[in-house]
Specification:
The protein has 631 residues and is an alpha+beta fold. 35% of the residues lie in helices and 21% in strands. Bound molecules: adenosine-5'-diphosphate and magnesium ion.
C-alpha cells in the first residue's frame, strides 16, 4: 500500500497552475490584473511567439517592496486581503495569492520592481525557474512600477505544452484578454506588441468621445454605428454601456463584453437574462453584441467561486436577472428610427454632454384596437382610424390615414395610385423644404413591386419592407392588448400526474403562488410526484408534461419563468404574420405614410417578428459615395 505524504511545494504549485495557467492568455490575464490592482496608469504588453517564448508586462503602478519581492512568488501570498471580511467586500481583481507562484512553477520568471516607498535609487529583481531554487534578490535598474517577464512557458510540463495551438491562435486569445481588460479600464493606457509589431496602442480615455473611440478600436467601427448607449439604475443596481440593435447580430457570441464591478465575467445567469431580452427581436440562431457594465455593492456578489474568477454568484439572483432583463428589454423596445440615422455619436444615444440616458418615449399612441373582455379577442371598433383597422388580425392596410397622427397634417389626398402623383410630389418637396421636422422615416414616394415602400426624408432615402413592418406593428399591438389582461387559466378535464425529482416537487410546493400567477395549479402529491389540475388556457394544447418540467426548471434556476409569455408571443407573432399586409397589395401614398408614422412610434419596429430588418436607410452622402461624387 502507498503511504501518504505531503506534496512538495513545487508540485503543489504546478497542480494549482493547472487551474490558473491554462495557456499564455491566462498568464497575461493574471499579470494584467496585478498591474491594474497596483494602480497603474499605463500597461505595456510584449509577446513573442504567441506567448510561449516570452510574455513581458510592464506597469507604472505602486511597485513591490524589496523585502516582499521573493514572497510575492510564493503561494498564498497576497497584499490584497487579510481576513474574511476583506474577501466579502473585495474591490481588487486578485485576492487568491497564487498567480505568480503558479506561473513561476511552469516557466522562467523574472520579477523586477521599484516601489513608491523605495528610498534608494533603482529597483530590485527576483528570478525563479520552475521554482527549483529559492529566488535570489539582485539590484535592477527599474523605474517606479513593476515588470514581469515570463519565458519558455510550460518548459517543464511538456504535456501542457502539447495542448497549445498555433502561434496565431494563442496570440488571438491574448489579444482578446487585453481587449477585455481595456474595455473595463478606460482610464488606463494600453499597448500590445507581438513579435516586435505593435498591435494596439490605446490612449487613456476620459471623455465620452474618447471612450467611444476605444470601443470602436476594440469592437470595430460598425459596432458603434448600431449601438445604443444606456445607463439605468434601480434597487441599488446600475447597468450602463452599449447594446447593439438586433439587426447588428453576429453568427458567434464574439462581441459580448460583460463586467461586474469592473471584472470580466461569463455567467449563465447574465447570458440567460440577455437572451431573454433579445428573444423577440433577434433572428433565429444569431447572437447579440454588447459592452455592458453592472455595478452593485461588492458584498452582494461572491467572486470567489471559480479559480479564474470568470464566474460570480449574486446574492439575490432573481433581482439581478430581472433587472438585467427589464433594462435591456426596455432599451431595445425604446429604439426609434431616428436613433440610428444620426452619426455615430447620436446613434449611441448621447447628446453633446455625452451623458444622455435612454428615456422612455412619449406615451404610445394606441393604434385603436380594442380588447373584447368576454372573448379575449382583439377587434377594431368602427370609429377606429384606418391604421387601427388594418392592424386588427383581419389584415389589409386601410384606405385612409386620417387620424393616424404624426406626419399627416393636411395637404395629402388619399389616392389609390402606388406612385405619388405630380401634385403629391410637389407637395412633398414643398414639405421637405419647409418642414423643420420631417419625420425620421420621411414621406412615401412610391411602392416598389408591391413589396417595398420608397420614402425620402431630409437627408436621404428609406426603403421599407411593408409586410415586415406591418407584421411588427400588429404584433406589438396584440401583445400590449394581451398584457392588459391577466393570464387566463383553464382547469384540465383529467388532471395529469407527473413524476418529477424531489427537488422539482419541492419547488412546486414552495413556489405554488408564483405558479398560480402563471395560471398553473400544481400540487405535490408525493415525494417525487406532482399533479397538474390547471394550466394557462393559451397553453391548453401544449405538451403539458414537458411544459411543467420546463417551467419548474426555470423557476428553480431563475425564480421565475418567461415560458408562458414566450409561448404567448409565439402565438401572437404567427397571428400577426398572417394578419399583416401581404406583398403585392397596392397601398396608396396616404396608407404608406400612415404605416411610416406607425413604425416611428411602435416598439421594436426596426425588426420584424423574426428579427429581420424592416427598413434600410441611405443618406445622401452614402448615395454620393455610390456614384463617386465629390471624390
Ligand atoms: P494576488 O493578485 O491574488 O494577490 P498574485 O500571485 O497575483 O496574487 O500576486 C501576489 C502579490 O504580488 C500581490 O498581492 C501583490 O502584492 C504583488 N504584485 C504582483 N504583481 C504586482 C504588480 N504588477 N505591481 C505591484 N504588486 C504586484
Ligand atoms: Mg493576481
Amino acid at each position: 500500500m502507498k503511504r501518504i505524504a505531503l506534496l512538495s511545494q513545487r508540485l503543489a504549485n504546478q497542480i494549482a497552475a493547472g487551474e490558473v495557467v491554462e495557456r499564455p492568455a491566462s498568464v497575461v490575464k493574471e499579470l494584467l490584473e496585478n498591474s491594474v490592482d497596483a494602480g497603474a496608469s499605463r500597461i505595456d504588453v510584449e509577446v513573442e511567439q504567441g506567448g510561449s517564448k516570452l510574455i513581458r508586462i510592464r506597469d507604472d503602478g505602486q511597485g513591490i517592496n524589496k523585502e516582499d519581492l521573493a514572497l510575492a512568488l510564493s503561494r498564498h501570498a497576497t497584499s490584497k486581503i487579510a481576513d474574511l471580511d476583506d474577501l466579502e467586500n473585495i474591490a481588487s481583481l486578485g485576492f487568491r495569492g497564487e498567480a505568480l507562484a503558479s506561473i513561476s512553477s511552469v516557466s522562467r520568471l523574472l520579477l523586477a520592481s521599484r516601489s513608491v516607498d523605495a528610498t534608494e535609487t533603482g529597483g530590485w529583481q527576483v528570478e525563479a525557474a520552475g521554482q527549483e531554487m529559492t529566488p535570489t534578490l539582485a539590484p535592477a535598474a527599474h523605474p517606479q512600477g513593476t515588470t514581469v517577464e515570463v519565458r519558455d512557458l510550460f518548459f517543464n510540463t511538456p504535456a501542457r505544452k502539447k495542448f497549445l495551438r498555433t502561434e496565431n491562435t494563442e496570440f488571438g486569445r491574448i489579444d482578446e484578454v487585453v481587449k477585455r481588460l481595456a474595455l473595463s479600464r478606460f482610464e488606463l493606457a494600453f499597448s500590445l506588441r507581438h513579435n516586435q509589431r505593435t498591435v494596439h496602442q490605446l490612449q487613456a480615455a476620459q471623455s465620452m468621445q474618447e471612450k467611444q473611440r476605444r470601443i470602436g478600436l476594440v469592437c470595430g467601427p460598425a459596432f458603434l454605428e448600431h449601438a445604443v448607449y444606456i445607463d439605468i439604475e434601480a434597487s441599488g443596481l446600475r447597468l450602463w454601456g452599449w447594446v447593439c440593435l438586433p439587426t447588428f447580430s453576429r453568427s458567434q457570441p464574439d462581441l459580448q463584453y460583460f463586467y461586474v464591478n469592473g471584472r470580466v465575467i461569463r455567467d449563465k445567469l447574465v447570458s440567460h437574462a440577455v437572451k431573454q431580452a433579445y428573444r423577440d427581436v433577434l433572428f433565429h440562431g444569431r447572437h447579440p453584441a454588447f459592452v455592458l457594465y453592472l455595478e452593485l455593492q461588492p458584498a452582494l456578489v461572491d467572486v470567489n467561486v471559480h479559480p479564474t474568477k470568470h464566474e460570480v454568484r449574486f446574492r439575490d439572483q432573481r433581482l439581478v436577472h430581472d433587472f438585467l432583463f427589464r433594462s435591456l428589454h426596455k432599451a431595445l423596445a425604446d429604439v426609434r428610427p431616428a436613433d440610428h440615422m444620426e452619426p455615430a455619436l447620436e446613434a449611441a444615444g448621447m447628446g453633446a454632454d455625452g451623458q444622455r440616458r435612454v428615456e422612455s418615449p412619449a406615451q404610445q399612441v394606441p393604434l385603436g384596437l380594442r380588447l373584447d373582455e368576454s372573448t379575449g379577442e382583439l377587434y377594431a371598433p368602427p370609429d377606429a382610424s384606418g391604421a387601427a383597422r388594418s392592424a386588427a388580425a383581419t389584415g389589409g392596410w386601410s384606405a385612409t390615414a386620417a387620424g393616424s397622427g404624426g406626419g399627416d397634417r393636411g395637404g395629402w389626398r388619399p389616392g389609390a395610385s402606388p406612385v405619388a402623383s405630380l401634385a403629391e410630389q410637389a407637395a412633398l418637396y414643398q414639405r421637405l423644404s419647409e418642414d423643420a421636422e420631417v419625420p425620421p422615416l420621411g414621406y412615401a414616394l412610391a411602392q416598389l413591386h408591391g413589396v417595398y415602400i420608397l420614402a425620402q426624408n431630409q437627408n436621404g432615402l428609406i426603403v421599407v419592407d411593408m409586410h415586415a413592418a406591418h407584421e411588427r406593428i400588429t404584433y406589438e399591438h396584440m401583445k400590449t392588448a394581451s398584457d392588459n389582461q391577466s393570464i387566463k387559466a383553464q382547469p384540465l378535464l383529467v388532471p395529469i400526474s407527473i413524476a418529477v425529482s424531489r427537488a422539482e416537487a419541492e419547488c412546486a410546493e414552495a413556489q405554488a403562488d408564483e405558479l398560480a400567477t402563471l395560471g398553473f395549479d400544481i400540487a405535490r402529491v408525493a415525494d417525487e410526484s406532482v399533479i397538474v389540475r390547471q394550466v394557462p388556457s393559451i397553453l391548453a394544447r401544449a405538451d403539458i408534461e414537458q411544459l411543467v418540467r420546463d417551467v419548474l426548471a426555470d423557476v428553480r434556476e431563475h425564480g421565475r419563468s418567461e415560458r408562458i409569455s414566450a409561448y404567448r408571443d409565439e402565438l401572437l407573432s404567427t397571428m400577426a404574420c398572417h394578419g399583416s399586409v401581404r406583398a403585392n397589395r397596392q397601398l396608396s401614398i396616404a396608407e404608406m405614410n400612415a404605416l411610416l408614422r406607425d413604425m416611428e412610434r411602435t416598439e421594436r419596429s426596426g425588426q420584424c417578428n423574426h428579427g429581420r430588418p424592416t427598413w434600410v436607410y441611405q443618406s445622401m452622402s452614402d448615395l454620393d459615395k455610390l456614384f463617386l461624387r465629390g471624390q
